[in-house]
Amino acid sequence: MLYDNHNRPITYVRLAVTDRCNLRCFYCMPEEGIKYLPKQALLTYEEIERLIKLLASMGVSKVRLTGGEPFVRNDLMELMSRIVETPGIKDVHLTTNGVLTAPHIPAMKKMGIASVNLSLDTLDKGRFHTITRRDEFDAVMNTYHQLIAHGIPTKINTVVMEGKNIEDIIPLVELTKNHPVDVRFIEEMPFNGEGTHYPVLTWTHKKILEYIQWHYPTLDKLKDAAHSTSYNYAVPGHKGTVGIIAAFSRTFCGTCNRIRVTAQGTLKTCLYDDGVLDIRKMMRDGCTDDELRSALSRAFNQRPADGFEAESNRKNHRPAHESMSTIGG
């Protein structure tokens, strides 16, 4: 097992394969988009495979591929297949916006992808266009129904935004009535690439829960899994569950078992840090696996206690001027 300096196990890596995205979501990037990295600045698939094999040898067993939108990068399915076959990797997951995903779902099922997180902030086509600044609602809903039909465990990730999608909270909870889906409501984070949207975050995890409980007084609290980022609930009689993620309040840091690697190969031991190791540079400078393993271990042993400490240690720009598309969603 691999542990950090706070005795938290590190078993899970979230790896962005691209910073590019085919949507322009309000909470992620400005309407005009962001300046994307040139192709040569991204980790190659060969570099990604090398890194995953090395992390697996150190104790990481779970991989989540993210972006940007992963499917805008060519040959993603081939990469996923190779990661699934990596010794030591037990579960491979995917986070996607669903625009390009549907045609790949049968192959993903056959491959054994453990679960898919589908970003979906509204069930209203007009509000979808307002939030994402793109007209792709039908494609995303087709992906959702295909995931359910193929029996791939599915989580919906919904960022709760004041003045944008509050009226969607209850319709999204209603999805759990007839579908075995986990709908997770996430506090809006400051990583939108253009500056803070609100002086104060009004829709905290507590307010989201109170709002749902007002509509569903019999809402049951479930036992949260080890290292869960969400507080989990169920409406009696519903097939699915409801989760609330305190992403801005950062109440789950004490059990965090995850690290992030950005598309350009920067290690983040916390979402809120500004990068602690340039893996791409080390690889391209010719480092050995032992040298890279040692550098990773040093980074894990200097991990901040929580997201607030990580944010206070930042040397570069404030979080609000980063985009989740660059960080890895």
From TrEMBL:
MF (Gene Ontology):
4 iron, 4 sulfur cluster binding; cyclic pyranopterin monophosphate synthase activity; GTP 3',8'-cyclase activity; GTP binding; metal ion binding
- Requisite cofactors: [4Fe-4S] cluster
Disordered, as annotated region? 303-329
Read off the CDD domains from this record: Radical_SAM, Twitch_MoaA
- Signal peptide location in the record? none
Alphabetized, the UniProt keywords read: 4Fe-4S, GTP-binding, Iron, Iron-sulfur, Lyase, Metal-binding, Molybdenum cofactor biosynthesis, Nucleotide-binding, S-adenosyl-L-methionine
Where would I find the Radical SAM core domain in this sequence? 5-224
Enzyme class of the recorded protein, top EC level: lyase
Database matches in Pfam families: Mob_synth_C (PF06463), Radical_SAM (PF04055)
Q: What is its EC number?
A: 4.1.99.22
User: Which is a GO BP term held by this UniProt record?
Assistant: Mo-molybdopterin cofactor biosynthetic process
Coiled-coil ranges per the record?
Answer: none
Q: What name is this protein filed under? A: GTP 3',8-cyclase
Q: Which organism is it from?
A: Pseudochryseolinea flava
